[in-house]
Structures are given as C-alpha cells and as structure tokens.
Backbone:
C-alpha cells in the first residue's frame, strides 16, 4: 500500500517537474526571440513644415519597445513601441509646453503614445513595411512605417546589436492635433504632415550593453585585452601582449613629492596663513569633535546597560545565567567602544596619519 502511494507521489512530482521545465524553457526561448530597444544609441525624430518654407524639428526623449523575431532571428514578426508624450522636445521650452497641452498631445491626460504592428511584409532586399495601429490621445488609426534592419553586430564587449532604421508620415489632424493658424492663400502656419524617422538599437531581451561600459578608458593595454577576450590574438600575440603589459606596469612611475607639489591646484598654493582652513587653528571644530567622541562612548555604554536590562526582563533565568549574559554584553561593548574611538581618531587626525 505504501509503495503504491510512493509511486503515485513520484509520478505526481515528475509531472509537475516536466510542466515547470517546459514553462521555463518556453519563457527562455521566447526571450531569445524578443529584443528590446537600447535607448543609448536610439533616437525618435520628427519634423513639420513651418510657413511652407522652413521646418520645425523635434524628438521624443523617452520611449521603450520590443521587437519579436521569427525562430531564425531573420525576420521581424511584431513591433511594440511606447512613447512618453511629455518627453517631446523641440529645443524651445515655450513651444514644448504648448505641444504638451490640450490642443496637441494633452500629455497630462494621455501620457502614452503607442504603436503596435498588425502585419510586417518584405518590400525588397532588407526593406520592410510595418502596418499597425498608432494611438495618440484617445484616437487609434492605422499607420504604416517603412524600415530596414542591419545585420547582427557584436560590440567591444561581445553584446549583440542590430539597428532598425525607420520612417513614416502622418496627417496630424487625423489624430486630433488640430491647433492651426492661417496665413495668406488659405494655408496654415504649421504644416499638416508630420514626418517621422529615426533608428532603434535593439538587443536581446536580457542582454543590453550597460551604458557604463562606454566610460572605460581607452589605452593600448585595454585594447589588447579586448582583442584577447574576443579571441582575435594568436598565441604569439598573447605572449607579446603579456610581456607588453608587464613592461607597462613596471614602467609606471610613482610620482615624487616634488611632482605632487607641482601639480597642486593653484587655489591651494595661494592659501595664506591668515586663513582659518586648518583644524589646528579652528577651536570650534575641535570642540565639536571632542563632544562627539564623548557622546559616542557614552552612548555605547548606555546602550549596553539598556540591552542587559531588557534581556533580563524578557527572559527570566537563573542568577548565574544572568551574570554570564551581563559579562557577555560588557565584553561585546568593549570592541564597540574601541571601534568608535578609532573612528573618531581617524576623523580627527586622519589627514596626518
């Protein structure tokens, strides 16, 4: 009887394990097919005619999106983009405020502009057309974008990258952007047609290049190490690189005291003895410092005594046990007092140690 129950439990847990494994693997697989926009090298631009002879150009600075590929990672099956309407910028604060207001985007009530593709077709060699629904404010209408897709490129740190270059046009009146002023011959001050273009850097869902990577210094040694990490160096090159790295480290000279003094900022060199900038001649600072030392040591002592009393009241025990606890707490308080004193000494005399 017990064996049959154990067998049933084993089958039950095996089924659960298979279901969970299938779910996890399907999620992982779907993430490999889904690429996200990396805003570090992406831009969403637009321009509109002004007085029929000039253009007003702008951009949206905050957006996110996903691109879903087919199983071969060659063709795009779906595109989803969300844009923060408040992030519109034309390098003119008054105009930007107007564009965020009710006659245009009404950003307070409608914070998002969205585009969701419904179909993507091939229009030629590396040319595609995405048809979908563009939502601005409460209005949803069909919209078409033409785009091209770059090949997969690995950056310095071996992160995968592809770029989507897109363009499209829309009549702003169709989406309720109806503010107008007329000029001669019945034309409008601001054109009806808005031209949209830009590029999206897309990377695998959980493998975006950290922006901080681009702050790494550029030196010969670092370049050689990057080539080594990419497997671009032969064995002879790696030996040469190791020797070069050792030579660079050995040739690095520690600056002498004279050099350090020469590199001191001009403001430091111009300080006079009459200025009260040193701790030795600042009684107020030292008074505060000594007071802090006394308060810190006193605080540790009071905290230890308070802890001992609280422990005794919460946990009744024998007299011998209470004495052992008291000795333990006192023993723990000594390193805390020493630590506080060491810290305060470092604060007071650290610059001279």
Residues:
């Amino acid at each position: 009887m017990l064996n049959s129950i154990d067998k049933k439990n084993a089958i039950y847990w095996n089924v659960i394990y298979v279901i969970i494994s299938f779910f996890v693997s399907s999620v992982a697989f779907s993430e490999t097919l889904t690429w996200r926009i990396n805003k570090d090298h992406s831009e969403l631009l637009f321009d509109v005619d002004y007085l029929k002879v000039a253009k007003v150009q702008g951009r949206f600075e905050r957006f996110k999106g996903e691109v879903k590929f087919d199983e071969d990672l060659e063709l795009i099956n779906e595109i989803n983009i969300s844009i923060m309407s408040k992030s519109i910028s034309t390098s003119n604060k008054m105009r930007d405020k107007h564009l965020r207001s009710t006659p245009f985007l009404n950003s307070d009530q409608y914070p998002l502009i969205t585009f969701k593709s419904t179909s993507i077709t091939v229009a030629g060699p590396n040319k595609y057309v995405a048809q979908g629904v563009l939502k601005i404010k409460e209005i949803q209408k069909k919209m078409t974008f033409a785009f091209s897709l770059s090949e997969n490129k690995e950056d310095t740190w071996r992160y995968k990258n592809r770029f989507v270059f897109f363009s499209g046009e829309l009549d702003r009146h169709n989406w309720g952007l109806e503010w107008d002023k007329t000029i001669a011959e019945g034309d409008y001050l601001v054109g009806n047609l808005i031209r949209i273009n830009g590029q999206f850097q897309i990377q695998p869902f959980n493998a975006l290049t950290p922006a901080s990577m681009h702050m790494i210094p550029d030196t010969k040694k670092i370049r050689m190490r990057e080539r080594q990490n990419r497997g671009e160096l032969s064995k002879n090159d790696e030996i040469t690189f190791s020797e070069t790295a050792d030579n660079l480290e050995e040739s690095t000279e520690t600056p002498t005291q004279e050099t350090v003094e020469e590199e001191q900022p001009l403001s430091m060199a111009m300080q006079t003895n009459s200025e009260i900038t040193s701790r030795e001649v600042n009684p107020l600072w030292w008074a505060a410092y000594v007071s802090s030392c006394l308060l810190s040591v006193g605080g540790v002592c009071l905290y230890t005594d308070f802890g001992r009393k609280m422990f005794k009241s919460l946990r009744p025990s024998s007299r011998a046990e209470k004495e052992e606890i008291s000795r333990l707490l006192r023993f723990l308080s000594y390193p805390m007092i020493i630590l506080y004193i060491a810290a305060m000494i470092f604060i007071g005399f650290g610059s001279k140690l």
